[in-house]
Amino acid sequence: MTGKLILVRHGETEGNVGKILDTRLPGLPLTERGVAQAKTFGASLTAPPRGLFCSAALRARQTGGYIEAATGVPLEVLENLQEVQLGDLEGLNTRAAHEEFQKVYHAWHFGDLELRVPGGESGEEVLARYIPALERIRDEYLADPEAGDVVLVSHGAAMRLVSRELTGVPRLFAANNHLDNTETIELLPSGDGLWECTRWGRYTAPFGDAIDPTGDDPMG
């Protein structure tokens, strides 16, 4: 069986603690707890990944750096993998701001990808910049049937949207189930350029709409 692409949400940040919508590069750093989470994740890997990548955001680079230290695998920063860009909502931590983003984000999961965050991105734009990087990783690292896993440190909202679109997991499940810091979505390459989702945070396949929603901390 070929290796998996393991998408990892970065460790906890100051923005996560303060419920700040933090999406613009370079973004806020990890907290001490976030550092500990990143170190624990790196130490938990049973084998070094074949490749280790991260977005350009500071929190992703820091998380990836601790995984690099634990595994010895060099970290490579990839462009266009930053979090969903929130435009006019950037830096806000109010309930109204979170609800405005959630309204748009849930609409994306149910197919309205043209909808745009005020001053920010549409769902279509997020997918258009993010998916080519995953295709490159697939072609260069996961084409060999004996390939090992690849780890990519990324961001909660972007990871969930892209993974739903690539794998077709149930829309309500994807919309309602966020990822805690350093939780993963695991994607297995399948035929004809498709992907299969084998893990989504605490859940393993198969996934269903009836799974209770988690409390939603979407950003990071």
Describe this protein's structure.
The protein has a single domain, classed as 3-Layer(aba) Sandwich (Rossmann fold). It is globular and about 45 Å long. Helix 2 packs across helix 3 (58-71) and helix 5 (123-141) crosses helix 6 (156-167). It has a 7-stranded mixed beta sheet, sandwiched between helices. It has 7 helices and 7 strands; from the N terminus they run E-H-H-E-H-E-H-H-E-H-H-E-E-E. With 220 residues, the chain is an alpha/beta fold.
In short:
By secondary structure, this protein is of the alpha/beta class. It has helices spanning 14-17, 32-44, 58-71, 95-109, 123-141, 156-167, 171-176; strands spanning 5-9, 51-54, 75-77, 150-154, 184-189, 195-200, 203-204. The protein has a single domain, classed as Phosphoglycerate mutase-like (Rossmann fold, 3-Layer(aba) Sandwich), CATH 3.40.50.1240.
Strand content: 5-15%
What is the level 1 CATH name?
Answer: Alpha Beta
Number of domains: 1
Strand order, main sheet: write it out: 3-2-4-1-5-6-7
What's the shape? globular
Q: List low-pLDDT spans.
A: none
CATH topological fold name: Rossmann fold
SSE map:
Elements: E1 5-9, H1 14-17, H2 32-44, E2 51-54, H3 58-71, E3 75-77, H4 95-109, H5 123-141, E4 150-154, H6 156-167, H7 171-176, E5 184-189, E6 195-200, E7 203-204
Parallel strand pairs: 1-4, 2-3, 2-4
Antiparallel strand pairs: 1-5, 5-6, 6-7
Helix pairs in contact: 2-3, 5-6
